[in-house]
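Two quick folds needed for the group meeting slides. Do the first one here.
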Amino acid sequence: MTDDDPYAWLEDVTGETALAWVRARSEETTGALATGDAFDAMRERLREVLDAEGKIPYVTRRAGYLYNFWRDAAHPRGLWRRTTLAEYRKAEPAWDVVIDVGELAREDGENWVWQGARTLRPDHRRALVHLSRGGSDAAVVREYDMDERRFVSAADGGFRLEEADSRVAWIDADHLYVATDFGPGTLTDSGYPRVVKMWTRGTPLEKAETVFEGRSTDIMVVAHHDATPGFERDFVNRSTDFWRRDRYLRTPEGLTRVDVPEDASVSVHREWLLVRTCSPWATGGTEYPAGVLLATGFDAFMAGERDFTTLFAPDGRSSLEAYGWTRGHLLLTVLRDVRTELIAFTPADGTWSSEPLPGAPGLDTATITGTSPDEDDEFHLVTSGFTTPPTLSRGVVGGQTEVLKRAPAFFDANGITVEQHFATSDDGTRVPYFVVGPRDGRSGRTLMTGYGGFEVSRQPEYNAVFGRGWLERGGTFVLANIRGGGEYGPEWHTRAIKADRHKVYEDFAAVARDLVRRGVCTASELAIQGGSNGGLLMGVMLTRYPELFGAIACQVPLLDMKRYHKLLAGASWTAEYGNPDIPEEWEWLRAYSPYHNLDPQRAYPPVLFATSTRDDRVHPGHARKMAAAMLEQGHPVHYYENTEGGHSGASNNAQNAFRWAMVLDFLWQRTGASTGETGAASAETGAASAETGSKG
């Protein structure tokens, strides 16, 4: 691929020529992959899972109520609803519907997709509801009165924002922090807000008071108010890149910098400041390594003291996955070789004590949710595994836990085992991976996935879609915990960014080879799937290691690493990948950029690209251009683009079921003893598609 991009016209997201190409390719793909009784049966079985009444309705606690967002067959756009704990304990709780998104969409004549709501502490009577058209990140914001069950009109002083990728936060009943598109020059190069303002009820947005302005090269600027009684504070955060931010305490006298490392994770709760380091930090006469969690008094820290207590330190096999507060306790989720441990810390009289919390057995995962730090020491705990349906429990720190909900089994796991193994990457690093499959360890068709970026950890979880669409058919599922993620803390991530990004791909390839070496499958039986940054992973596997795989599904992907930083939110990721405008960094990127490493003479496994026209995070042009180039070269390619769905690729359960049925059936049909499609066999079709798809 030369620097003169012959397919740049496909970056015109809604251009008629580009959309004509999209429609033609999508129709070809659905005609080839999404027809017949077998496909229809698979789609319906997946739809049953997504719409099932027996799913756990996960909740958020607010002022005595448990709130839930729910989709099912009767309510494809969803219901925002609430109930009480007493009702929730019942097998069939009585739910009070706050907003019916489908009914609202019909009234407004809009394709609304729910994007969440921010409620006003402490009584949570008012909410800032975010509604997206078609599932994009950009959303409108409307104030909602929970008691009167109505949106507050502008005539009544209601807060409203037009469609934008906004960040809003309550200060009090009459004031908001707003970071949005205020007009020309108010967005960063990444397309996020550069300016944050304080907006007073009853005044026009253009009269809002500017609180802080960042630079156009920043990622974004936001502000928030901590309304904890007795500890009210205001903070401004300026993200200078994806991993670094400046933090300020806002007072009547102005902004005071919180002097912590730019790349650290920082939180304030009541009197406590917590700092989780991402790189070594020398302060107060002590050097702390990356990945530690430190605690100190916030006011003392702002006064210059640097007396920290170390609550967690990694040991090479463990990492801090998450932490969160109840009113009086700090709950830690620790991963040890990607297995979950839970710990409760309690501060008292200047010291911290700890005790274990009940966690998940074996290779399952435990996740703490549902704390209410303003109110009490209650927490909700979700346990789940590859073959273990989720269980939701309620506990109080120091007390007993009770099971509130259990999800049913959506696929037959009899005879399926879960094992953890380690592959050796090119540089000698041990890379963990999970194998879920038949007890005898040999199934043939194997589906492998991974992510490998942005310090995102991938853990065992119950995925009923993959269970029905792959495991129940006799296949094996593999999750690779490759570098770039957070499974072993920040260094597992930082050792594989920018110039060292190649290690992500070497790790994934090492797992693929290990599966073949151990006899789990052959290369032709190995399918792989990934989306977003995982879609980039798929693109690199396709172009760098095509001999290792039988078929590839590449979803909402980054693929053109020469122009990714100029497309939508791409500029925000240069801290992860590098800046292609800098010659040295382009050399790193050029070495693996899938779009620039296509070879017309090389044989590639069949690939399905899937994306969304409404994805305003990762530009659909990545997938469009890659598919067009491969078709021109005669490679086996399928392309599908949903007209809505945003970065998730689907905006409702029907679309989700259709998409996953197509992806899983494609991978199943293209792997195994007879793939049914080869590069040579599909070359004629590819050439014909390229002819109709050229810009002309």
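Then this one, please, same format:
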Amino acid sequence: MLTAFQNMILEKIAKGDVLVDILNCLCRAVEDMVPDIVISVLSLDDELCLHHLAGPSIAPSYADAIDGLKIGEGVGSCGTAAFRASPVLVESIATHPFWSAFKHLALPLGFRACWSTPIISDDKVLGTFAFYFFRERGPSDFERQIVAACVHLCAIGMDRELRSVERRRIAQTDSLTGLPNRSRFNDIIALEDASKRHWGLLLMDLDDLKLVNDTFGHLAGDDLIASVGRRLQSLCGPDSAFRLGGDEFAVIVRGDECVDLGFFASHILDCLKAPCLCVGQTIYPSATIGGAVAVVGESIAEIRQNADFALYEAKDRARGKFIEYSRNSGSRFARRFGAFQQLADGLREGRVDVHYQPIVDLRTGHILGLEALCRLTNRNGEVISASHFHEATRDANLAAELTRQILRIIATDARRWMDLGLDFGRVGLNVSAGDFLDGQLSENIVGVLETAGVPTNKIVIELTESIYIGRHEQSVVGQIAKLRKAGMEVALDDFGTGFASLTHLVTIPLDIIKIDRLFVERMIVDRSASVIVEALLSISEKLNFKVIAEGIETREQCDFLSGLGCVRGQGFLFSKAVDREQATLLLRRQAEKTAIVPMLRFAL
């Protein structure tokens, strides 16, 4: 009978049944075999406190009363057995000193004696296994055999459970910071939602982690992440701060504190400001935080998305600070974040492509060059222009990745056209402020062109004043000079619509200015616009700049510009931006001595 009982329990352990269910089954089976007893199984935590684990016949009131009991000498039978790591038999609960503080709990339930045996595995006490007798007595030989078997089975089951818990803990712990990881975060946030308590969510990104990695090496970056993780863990407590991956962290704020997320976020930012030593380098951590308070009726996905919206907004206009999601401005947050996600997904999934708009000689219609314009194919197959996700390019990292992908496409196309013997002049590549951040723009572009076998003099770098207004102008000027030294021309786009444009003609090394379409559109009917265009052409000639007029849509505009001495232009009059194959077709036609002519777009 005992062998069959042991095999049954071992089979349940081997199958991975829930430990509490296994032990309750064990208790019921033993109580059926041995009359006049009730069994209790307690577990011991790291704080040396006992907790009710199993015992279906134990009254809930009694289990609750002893739950959390600190072990020690003379603390009942179980507390003493766990403390001594050896069995303790009390044959009279009513008179034994070990039970003086607890007999008022046991005697009303009919318990007259208690024999407790510690459950031990690898010299560590995991809990206790106790027989409560309804008579003042000790165990029989058969009962001793049963207890020896049960304690062994309990040790196997509890040890297996501990190892399983440890495996789950390791699987849900970030190895670098020791914080719970994304998997644990997903579990905890689901529990918060189910609890119906007040809670809020903060999402945090470290600032300039890439700069730290590039400057001091990835070990310094890892040290920085680990330092931030330790500070968050100390500040927020268990299962409140999480590392989601990379430089991303999350903090769950509970209770009344979530009413004022800003106060809690400010406390976090203040704690992060202290310098930390990373591979011998002193680094001052900085972070940007977005947050949202959970609102009844919103799903977890909506709350996380709201916090994401706020973080994106903070990274764009309040770096190093906190922004809380506001439902009054939610549509604006969502629109901007949607653009960010749209472009990020497109880059990741390879759905970004290039269309080309010809730049032509206004007198002959001959193609002098092409401007590369970004296009994104939605998952539904729709091709959209950059204007639909322009706000997303204000994110420096995203804009820089967009430039890298566009450059690789341009280099591939340019090499193919060269192999076909097609003259395409130069291709204009639009760059953003994000491309200048690492100080390696020229080297990055030259590297891609060399890999593709394309000379640098086939590229025009197009930039706007926003790249250097309010930024480290000297650094930008130096990088522009390196681009020109490498053989590329540099064009100032949208000229005339920014700030201090004439000043920049003197201070910024340029080759080309592109007159904004606004002036081209107005110059026929607005004398002020025509005077400005004429003045720009005169200044450019004296400064030896080339000029390209943008947005030419009518023959009248083309003739007017030609009359003022403008040689180059682009616009719908000549061609819309066309895909790569159509661009190749235009170049083939030109190679066959068929110049591009106005209204060509209708033939495409």
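Slide caption for protein two: The chain is about 45% helix and 20% strand.
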